[in-house]
Automatic annotation (TrEMBL), chains A, B:
<dbReference type="InterPro" id="IPR054691">
    <property type="entry name" value="LeuA/HCS_post-cat"/>
</dbReference>
<dbReference type="GO" id="GO:0009097">
    <property type="term" value="P:isoleucine biosynthetic process"/>
</dbReference>
<dbReference type="InterPro" id="IPR013785">
    <property type="entry name" value="Aldolase_TIM"/>
</dbReference>
<dbReference type="Pfam" id="PF08502">
    <property type="entry name" value="LeuA_dimer"/>
</dbReference>
<dbReference type="Pfam" id="PF22617">
    <property type="entry name" value="HCS_D2"/>
</dbReference>
<keyword id="KW-0808">Transferase</keyword>
<keyword id="KW-0028">Amino-acid biosynthesis</keyword>
<dbReference type="GO" id="GO:0009098">
    <property type="term" value="P:L-leucine biosynthetic process"/>
</dbReference>
<dbReference type="InterPro" id="IPR036230">
    <property type="entry name" value="LeuA_allosteric_dom_sf"/>
</dbReference>
<feature type="domain" description="Pyruvate carboxyltransferase">
    <location>
        <begin position="3"/>
        <end position="267"/>
    </location>
</feature>
<dbReference type="InterPro" id="IPR005675">
    <property type="entry name" value="Citramal_synthase"/>
</dbReference>
<protein>
    <recommendedName>
        <fullName>Citramalate synthase</fullName>
        <ecNumber>2.3.3.21</ecNumber>
    </recommendedName>
</protein>
<comment type="similarity">
    <text>Belongs to the alpha-IPM synthase/homocitrate synthase family.</text>
</comment>
<dbReference type="GO" id="GO:0003852">
    <property type="term" value="F:2-isopropylmalate synthase activity"/>
</dbReference>
<dbReference type="InterPro" id="IPR002034">
    <property type="entry name" value="AIPM/Hcit_synth_CS"/>
</dbReference>
<keyword id="KW-0100">Branched-chain amino acid biosynthesis</keyword>
<comment type="pathway">
    <text>Amino-acid biosynthesis; L-isoleucine biosynthesis; 2-oxobutanoate from pyruvate: step 1/3.</text>
</comment>
Length: 521, 521
């Protein structure tokens, strides 16, 4: 039986805290999933909200080359004929080739949550499958809480699957809804289901509440499941669903199951979906995270340069990711050379300038700088040492004033900047929320007439740490700033005994880096 | 054999991108791990940097009730006598009861990375274990890349373990260094090792590159391993190490292996370590994340209100977490009551004032406050609401000025404070390194004549985070300050659009808390 991927990012994924898609967002993601080679895309629950109905209306007029669109719903309600249940009728009205609905497998849910009888629950499953099959749809049956139900009352749980098969279901998906099972339990129970229904197609749907969403799905697949349901980046209620961006490369690279035609698009897809959802990309995400192939310790950097598989389980390019070498106080000459060459400098071990960079980095690290996430400051430092840097402006003086009346009262913060720009004295003043914001505003005001492109820059993160935590507010402060022009991101660092100066240094580096890159482009 | 937890947050954890600890940070975390009941704490690699040596010097004078401190290193170098190897000597000089070091199990690493012979590699392992044992230490041997090595050349990999046992190693830890193996491979290989060395104690050290760090460690434990190595919140190189905050509750609640005395402290510990590292807490983290027990879908909310285990794999309180209902927020009362009573207030459910505290906390958390590490601010808030607070001073106005000549030139920062103290107008001015330090100085100057005891207060940590990271320097800022009087430590929090105001709020809370405590003592 061919293995299939079933994506529920657009339905179960949106149950996650902070995950919201418009119907157009959903359409854009559906096309990316189709391009990537996902076999089924669950678009939403038409019975639950009008946005999902709108998505299915839009999707009807679109062409998908690989993916089949599925609408999601539940069985008919208890004590009502299936053809009179509005939720079931809305599900069919979505007019999708595939219909997926869930029913109850756990007797406790039948009696305590649905408050109906064991027999009626089975009839609800059987009737709903049959009704959808008679409407000509491919029917996927999601057996909610199957594993918990099986652990409580195995025979009852199995009998609900039998009801779905009697109705004519094309696929039985065993759902680990609460996410608390262990892989061995999953393997064992899937095997039991296979013994009982040897001809049925079995799918697996897991959640990550125990941190085992992917492991549990893999265990089910080893035991014979041929479909996996999950979401991109593991979105989903509570801790999320089985993460497709993790399980796909495991299936394809580790277990030899061909699931998608081109795995090198994986990292791009993962970032795309985070961008549409407006969520930060998790740096430590397996395979696709920005740290997934990053190396910090000197011994590791030295080894991966001799032989990349010495500390990398796969070549990063296989999944469209890349190796990153971090510069830190744990690093040696190899880290720095690697990083410099990555930034486009052509330096060999022992080349002129290398010693100067090494000494400068060590000295500045000792003063409290940190270049791990401050690539842009590191690049400026190298340029300065190699004599490949021309200043864009020359700061003469800056000044901030802050006044508060009463603890929670009226407040102002003002910054003035005096600088020399191409021989011209520029003197600006601006106000802002706090001294750093005021300085940022005043600096932009000074530069924007000559460099209008700086309007593109936004500061997207600002972090402050005391370096020596022994001496409190008089200790050195390190500021890390992350900036973006909407296309790329860059990090800069500043260190001073004074938080305003440290912020200012990181701010100036950010704009300076951007302008230098523009000049050389 | 008793099961043991081995924490390497302070060593392998710091290999993670963005994870940096001062030696004092390490000491604070070590005490929390000890309180929690971790059996071994790996503090660092003394041979690699002076910061780690400093940690071991500090730790020597501290008392730990459960944890043994371990120093980490590597085998002796090839072609040198073990007692002449400076790295090994530095390792022993750390003077810890436990010494852990790694050696090579993978023949490819021996020949391509170390560039030595298979025999010499075994001798390096054997000699180093023996030398450390003769120095009277408990020796834990980390067999780096054991699984990859075994898959390539099983007999060679096993022979390196034999060398460690010949030297007298107390524990053989099988390391899945590259993080790319599957749980079934792990189970199989651990069983083979157990067959070969039935009397040896076996540990497991995994990484999360395939998203299976926890699952792989669980598979090894099922196959007989009795120690797990990992890090709090899964810090570590690339995608991180086995996440102890995930595996501990799985072991204790799902597999019935007793590992810590009180699991309800887990969420608090997880947040504490993130706070010290100044990293955001991952909301979707299993067990301890803020979304781990959150419910959004209507059917789920309805069901969990009938029966919490309908969509929760464990009761959230078991791990010190709580249920969150995203539509109608009913939760939190128990946490707040627990915390308030911990601070010495005697409040019962429904007591007068409880609702007021609950509402205030909800509102302030919504504004960006966070009381996890800000006990002192939380206590002041409760006192104010219960009417058990008398102000020590009344601030009328404050003002800071900052001037710099040239980017690295002469700079001054001045603060003035006008306040009313017992009907007396006090107006002081001081200067400092940065506006916060200047305000601190001016405030102390104003208060010290009336309250000479404030001279005992030192600020020992100061952390700043942007709350909404989308809008850069104009976003809200949260400041966390930790203070000490040399005997106890307390944390305070301030939030504002302006970093100076946020700092000021946390500063005032710190001194106010101290003075209030003195008055009531």
């Amino acid at each position: 039986m061919k293995f299939s991927l079933y994506d529920t990012t657009l339905r179960d994924g949106t149950q996650g805290e902070g995950v919201n898609f418009s119907s157009l967002d959903k359409l854009r993601i559906a096309h990316q999933l189709d391009e990537f080679g996902v076999h089924y895309i669950e678009g939403g629950w038409p019975g639950s909200n009008p946005k999902d109905i709108e998505f299915f209306n839009l999707a009807k007029n679109e062409t998908f080359k690989t993916s089949k669109i599925a609408a999601f719903g539940s069985t008919r309600r208890a004590g009502i004929a299936v053809h009179e249940d509005p939720q079931v009728l809305t599900l069919l009205a979505a007019d999708t080739p595939v219909v997926t609905f869930y029913g109850k497998s756990w007797l406790m849910h039948v009696t305590e949550v649905l408050r109906t009888t064991p027999d009626e629950n089975r009839a609800m499953i059987r009737d709903t499958v049959r009704f959808c099959k008679e409407a000509g749809r491919e029917v996927i049956y999601d057996a909610e809480h199957f594993f918990d139900g099986y652990k409580d009352e195995p025979e009852y749980a199995l009998s609900t699957l039998a009801a779905a098969l009697e109705g004519g279901a094309d696929m039985l998906v065993l759902c680990e809804t609460n996410g608390g099972c262990l892989p061995d339990e999953i393997a064992d129970i899937v095997s039991k289901v296979r013994e009982r229904f040897p001809d049925a197609a079995i799918g697996i749907h897991t959640h990550d509440d125990g941190g085992l969403g992917v492991a549990n799905a893999l265990a089910a697949i080893r035991a014979g499941a041929t479909q996996v349901q999950g979401t991109i980046n593991g979105y989903g209620e509570r801790t999320g669903n089985c993460n497709l961006t993790t399980i796909i490369p495991n299936l394809q690279l580790k277990m030899g199951i061909e699931v998608v035609p081109d795995l090198t698009k994986l990292t791009e897809l993962s970032k795309y979906v985070d961008d549409v959802a407006n969520l930060p990309h998790f740096p430590r995400a397996p395979f696709v995270g920005s740290s997934a192939f990053s190396h910090k310790g000197g011994t590791h950097v030295n080894a991966v340069q001799k032989l990349s598989r010495s500390y990398e389980h796969i070549p990063p390019a296989t999944v469209g990711n890349h190796q990153v070498v971090l510069v830190s106080d744990l690093s040696g000459q190899d880290n720095i050379l690697h990083k410099a060459n990555e930034l486009g400098f052509k330096l060999a071990r022992g080349a002129p300038g290398v010693k100067g960079i090494l000494d400068a980095v060590k000295q500045r690290e000792n003063e409290g700088y940190e270049y791990e996430t401050a690539d842009a400051s590191f690049e400026l430092l190298i340029r300065k040492i190699l004599g490949e840097y021309t200043p864009t402006f020359d700061l003469l003086e800056y000044h901030t004033t802050h006044r508060t009346h009463g603890v929670r009262g009226f407040e102002t913060c003002e910054a003035t900047i005096k600088m020399d720009m191409n021989g011209q004295r520029v003197y600006t003043v601006e106000e802002g929320d706090g001294p750093v914001n005021a300085l940022d505003q005043a600096l932009r005001k000074a530069l924007i007439t000559v460099y209008p492109e700086i309007a593109q820059i936004t500061l997207c993160d600002y972090k402050v740490r005391i370096i020596d935590s022994k001496s409190g507010s008089a200790a050195k402060t390190r500021v890390l700033i992350e900036s973006t022009d909407g296309v790329t991101h860059w990090g800069t660092v500043g260190v001073s005994f004074n938080i305003i100066d440290a912020s200012w240094e990181a701010l100036v580096d950010s704009i300076d880096y951007f302008l230098n890159r523009h000049k050389s482009a």
